[in-house]
Design a protein that fits this description.
By secondary structure, the protein is α+β, with helices and mostly antiparallel strands. The protein has one domain: Deoxyribonuclease I, Chain A, CATH 3.60.10. Helices cover about 25% and strands about 25% of the residues. The strands form 4 sheets. Strands 1, 2, 3, 4, 14, 15 and 18 form a 7-stranded mixed sheet that branches. The chain has a 7-stranded mixed sheet with strand order 5-6-7-8-13-10-9. Strands 11-12 form a two-stranded antiparallel ribbon. Helix 2 packs across helix 3. The longest helix is centred in the N-terminal third of the chain and has 22 residues. The protein is globular and about 55 Å long. The N terminus is likely disordered.
Length: about 350
């Protein structure tokens, strides 16, 4: 009897290990101004220098890195695995990512980096971190933000002045299946402007993804980023064809699991008491339904297909911003926080 119990336990462990090997976490995190302390004449990094407005010292930089690593490690502990792919935004350069992935808490993930220096006036870029044991890199592309061929009208002044982040596309394989990932940080809402610019960014990425689907039939696509819009806004609902329910997702549509979540009152960031979900992850039809029986999007908890990751240590505990994400600076002072955004993620798996 004892031997039977032991064998049964070993079989259960093997099944659990197999299930884990078939499950992958894909996420996005706005790292809120992850700048180094060195002056780069090509970038607007004056605030993030030792003698700049934020008095950005080596000690503060190292604390910021440790905090970012703490969040990534916390997610790994919750999920029982590191992210297979993690898109990030608001990073100054490749060096800050090299410093991040080398942090002792997450160094064992051996994250690899895909990054391009972009033309953004603030000097921030997007990038992709990936686990080479789970994702096999094939190719990447930095897609410029242009106005050619758009269905949206822009003034010549807007076109001449405007500079923003490029869109990053990375494709490769997970468990032998072909994937493409788009990482975006769409134009800011500062001054209540930029709605048509965010729609243009969504239009660029969406059209590029259609080209990938035509070139690689059956490819599974994930689009993620700080959209600076909510899931119901025009950029996401119209120009990126984001749908709320599975039943609405046609062959050229994307399922946006965060659309239901924002309607249910959830949020990844808060401004003047209003919660929003700018940090979105959308998946195409091939990944939503996985007609070939392969990897597909899974429910995580409470019936949702996405998760906004927040733990108490990541939140402001008191005062005016109680319950908000605990950010790096508040009212001009360094408060040793994490980010003004909570990270988000989805889980994909093969059903046993």
């Amino acid at each position: 009897m004892k031997r039977i119990i032991t064998i049964a336990a070993l079989l259960l462990m093997a099944i659990c290990a197999n299930a884990q090997s078939r499950t992958y976490v894909i996420g996005f995190y706005n790292l809120e101004n992850l700048f180094d302390i060195y002056d780069d004449p090509a970038k607007n990094d004056n605030e993030f220098l030792p003698d700049g407005a934020n008095q950005w010292t080596q000690a503060k930089y190292e604390k910021k890195l440790a905090n970012m690593a703490k969040v990534i490690k916390s997610m790994a502990k919750d999920n029982g695995r590191y992210h297979t792919v993690l898109g990030v935004s608001e990073i100054e350069n490749r060096m800050v990512l090299e410093d991040l992935v080398a942090q002792p808490e997450i160094a064992d993930a051996n994250y690899q980096i895909v990054h391009y220096d972009g033309p953004d006036r603030r000097g921030v870029d997007v990038a992709l971190l990936y686990n080479p044991k789970q994702f096999t890199f094939i190719e990447s592309e930095s897609i410029p933000f242009t106005f050619e061929g758009s269905d949206i009208d822009f003034s010549d002044i807007d076109k001449d002045y405007f500079r923003t982040r490029d869109i990053l596309m990375v494709h490769g394989t997970i468990a032998g299946e072909h994937f493409a990932f788009y990482v975006m940080h769409l134009p800011s809402r500062v001054g209540g402007k930029g709605g048509n610019l965010r729609s243009r960014g969504a239009e660029i990425a969406y059209r590029h993804s259609l080209g990938m689907m035509e070139k690689y039939p059956g490819i599974k696509i994930v689009a993620m980023g700080d959209m600076n819009d909510d899931p119901f806004d025009e950029s996401m609902a119209v120009y990126f064809h984001g749908r709320e329910t599975l039943e609405e997702v046609g062959p050229e549509d994307y399922f946006n699991p965060f659309l239901r979540m924002i309607k249910d009152g959830l949020g990844s960031l808060c401004y003047q008491g209003q919660w929003s979900i700018y940090d979105q992850i959308l998946v195409n039809n091939n990944l939503t339904f996985a007609p070939d029986g392969g990897l597909k999007l899974m429910q995580i908890n409470k019936g949702y297909y996405g998760r906004i990751y927040k733990k108490r240590f990541m939140m402001s505990k008191s005062g005016q911003y109680k319950g908000y994400p605990l950010r790096t600076f508040s009212n001009g002072g360094f408060i040793s926080g994490y980010s003004d955004h909570y990270p988000t993620y989805i889980v994909i798996s093969k059903e046993l």
